[in-house]
User: Fold these one by one.
Assistant:
Number 1:
Amino acid sequence: MMKDHINGLSFRAIGERYGISKSTAYHKVTEELKNLPDNNKITFTYCNRFSNVFEFDAKYIPVKGYPKDLAFLWGVDYWRHDLPLILLAKAESFRTWSTCFSYFRIINHYPMYMVCDDHHGLKMAARFKFPEVKIQTCYFHFSKGIKTELRVATDETYKEFSKRIDDLLSIKRATIDFDRKLWKLFNNYKDDPVTLKILTDIERRKEEFLAFQGFLKCPVTTNMIEGFNSHLEERLKHINSFQSFAHAKLWLNAYVLKRRTTKLTDCRGKFKKLNGKRPLEIERPQTHATHPCC
């Protein structure tokens, strides 16, 4: 029943499947969820082989009794496909991201390169907790934000400009190439205060768009963590909302543990060597190879 719930079945559906009431299903599954080890404590105790590249994001989770969806903060180890540390919070902010990043001090690990969306609280917390980190602004999220700001879906005025921004951020560029394209955009659109503001912002934050330089084969989008978000969204589709903060926390903990202990099967290209391995196995030291938690 617990596995069914983690896979997205509501308590009503579980009750119908096993011939019990909805409340009985809730209590039985909750007791099983409580018996599981805490994901972060597993990482604190048994894992120490992390890569220096992470993607971070927040997924919003509906929970009864809260007017706004809660923020589930997590990050994927890019080269390991693991989810070592998680946090469920009432909101996504500098404070909650700082708490999440503080967990990295416990495992004595500090990412050197990270990709994230344009959330200012996230970036401020990362710089505060990881002074040496290079922060790469996700190309996709930034371009999407430009489209939203300029309302290109319903207004043709800035559609061509938006396409030019997409082209600028379509591939990884050397600094000289990036500057050349940005300067060309400036010459074409400097007389419009709206486009000038956007171009000035890009120039001011150029370091965030070129942070990938010096890191071999590293991402410039949050596609990997977005894939995890989509999978989580699929599992939550039939649950609708959690009964309480505590239940949401238990379910998310179980969901992440399941992902970390399931063998990878669909990795391609540079990640192909991960197939057949469990993410938790990859990040744990060999001295704990026979420990039941691993």
Note: The chain has two domains: 36-137+221-294, 139-209.
Number 2:
Amino acid sequence: MCGRFVLSGKKDEVEEEFEVELVEDFPPRHNIAPTQPILVMLDEFGHRTGRLMRWGLVPGWVKDPREFPLLVNARAETMAEKPAFRDALAHGRCIVPASGYYEWQAGPDKRKQPYFISRADGRPLALAGLYTIWAGPNGEEVDTVATITVAANRQMATIHDRMPAILDTGDFDTWLDVRGVRVEEALRLIHPLREDVLQFHPVSSRVNSANIDEPSLIVPVTPDRPPRPAPRQMDLF
């Protein structure tokens, strides 16, 4: 899963990279955690806009969010059938800009080594997401979002068996166009990223605390153990 990520770019840098108009400014963040506000990009009448939403999707039919599980990620393989994500997949597709994300590799001693994962070329990631608006009994409205995960490619499987669904730049408009692009076509864009795009390195376990948010969290450290070998491809012989 993807449970923590980084967005360190400035407002004008994000606007230029994603060709989006951002309504709200935001500070650089190096340890964004669930339930916190995150920057989300969506299409509004053919125009890319960005707004802050709560990370943790709450379907509109939920009566009390306090009694509903936190939906941080949506599994690509099942989201089209799940009542919690089905409507958002059809009407609330979005993109979550990120400079990189964290993942934890579980060791045989049950200790977990965190890694920071980013694009090898230094460009930001476009995480595919789903959003919905929860309306409360007193008229309050909360924009909520979940990021989508897929099976890890062979490179990322050395750390974890899941990874975020990361969109190519040329697919942004298709994914965001919920009026003109059917769910079946949009789902073709959701797949593991090819193996030559990302890079990763171990980072301090200080990232485990959501209360710590500083640039030093993404600085490489010497891991307690090396990454496990990539799984071997199976064949018939």
Note: The CA atoms of residues 80 and 213 lie 34 Å apart.
Number 3:
Amino acid sequence: MDRETLAREYDRLSDEELIRMCKSGGLTELALDVARKELAQRKIDAPMPSLASEETRFEPEISGFATVFRTLTLSEAQLINGRLLIEGIPSHIAHEHTLQMLGSVMGGFQVWVPLESVALAKQILSDILAGKLALEDDAKRI
């Protein structure tokens, strides 16, 4: 999502909604920057969190679960979630139905796994991103 689209979406939020969203710590760098500017335009001086470091992004979101993947698109979250499920890791997309309309505005979709599965899930994600689990293209086999 680009800066202008975020600005339009944030302009529609109430002061309380915008502040709550900013304090959630789940916004991307771009989204947080746009939100800060919107608050400044409204002359609201709310304490703002800094961006989460890569390590804190994997802190437990709810008791017993951790975020292992974030994305701005629902389809990508569903693909990752499906792959983790196939690998036997119980996972789900946090707030999937709530965020379908505002997912990218709220900082994207998060795939959660039980804490005991974080290491394995991170390894699978690493393999996915490295292309190790990609299927061969049928056209290349001919």
Note: The helical segments are 3-12, 15-23, 29-41, 74-86, 96-99, 118-129, 138-141.
